[in-house]
Design brief:
mainly alpha
Length: about 280
């Protein structure tokens, strides 16, 4: 069942990413092209219908996913790098500086992402820069906690102690012995954080703080379709389904990767009948 969830998550991610990557190369119509057929239902000409301006919903979903995923991915990568570096320092060196770093991470964790986006939008104006910075800051505490716990445990392992005994310095031990053993939990956290970042970017775009018109974004499309939902639900249904499929796929993949990469959980998986028999 764990493998089934992982496979289903990977299928949903592949389908959604395939749609977004295809949208970067080709769309059935230009995403901002206006046509006379507004609020039309799905048809052969428009597979997902059209919005209130007659723009093709499928083309806008394909193009809007690129904006959403780009901002979310940049935020997770930036937050992961900073969080791992700060948490690793706090776990490996410890002391007063380490405590200050972790208390600052706790402060960031208590600060709502939407409120941070509102503050940055007030300072810099609406746009993807403020959203990316807010999402990156929101991801720092999660990576910092994982890195601190991992560094505190791994620095006391026998291979790290042996490396120090032969004269290896801190950077060598970290890069050669600690970080390679931190890959699994960091990859799992990155997958789960990406799902949260996609939702947060859509929420901020829904509030008008993210990608600005006429460029499409899934959250912006949902906000614009709200006023016309009683006339035609299709401009809201398809962006919402695509967003839900991607977030569900990322969450399933994150849980599956955690179960697959964690040796303790792998040992709890029952063996298949006959797997322990020796073949003659």
């Amino acid at each position: 069942m764990r493998r089934l969830g992982l496979r289903l998550g990977l299928v949903l991610i592949a389908l959604t990413l395939g749609l977004v990557v295809l949208g970067a190369l080709w769309t059935p119509y230009p995403p901002t092209k206006l046509t006379p057929t507004s609020l039309s239902a799905p048809s052969w000409a428009h597979a997902m219908g059209t919005d209130w301006f007659g723009r093709d919903t499928l083309s806008r979903v394909m193009a809007g996913g690129r904006s959403t995923l780009s901002v979310a991915a940049v935020a997770v990568v930036a937050g992961g790098i900073l969080g791992t570096a700060l948490g690793g320092w706090a776990g490996y060196r410890g002391g007063l500086v380490g405590e200050i770093i972790m208390r600052a991470a706790d402060l960031l964790l208590a600060f709502p992402t939407v409120l941070a986006g509102l503050v940055l939008a007030t300072v810099w104006g609406p746009g993807i820069l403020g959203v990316a910075v807010a999402l990156a800051a929101a991801n720092i505490p999660f990576f910092a906690r994982i890195a601190r716990a991992g560094f505190m445990t791994l620095k006391e392992r026998q291979y790290a102690t042996a490396a120090r005994a032969v004269g290896a310095g801190g950077p060598h031990i970290i890069l050669r012995h600690i970080l390679p053993n931190m890959t699994s939990p960091l990859v799992v956290q990155a997958t789960v954080s990406l799902a949260g970042a996609v939702l947060a970017e859509a929420s901020l775009s829904y509030l008008g703080l993210g990608v600005q018109p006429p460029h499409p974004s899934w959250g912006r499309m949902l906000q614009e379709a709200q006023s016309y939902f009683h006339l035609s639900p299709w401009p809201a249904v398809f962006p919402g389904l695509t967003l839900a499929a991607l977030v569900l796929g990322l969450n399933l993949a994150g849980d599956g990767l955690r179960d697959y990469l964690d040796p303790a959980l792998r040992r709890l998986t029952p063996e298949r009948p006959g797997s322990g028999q020796v073949r003659r």
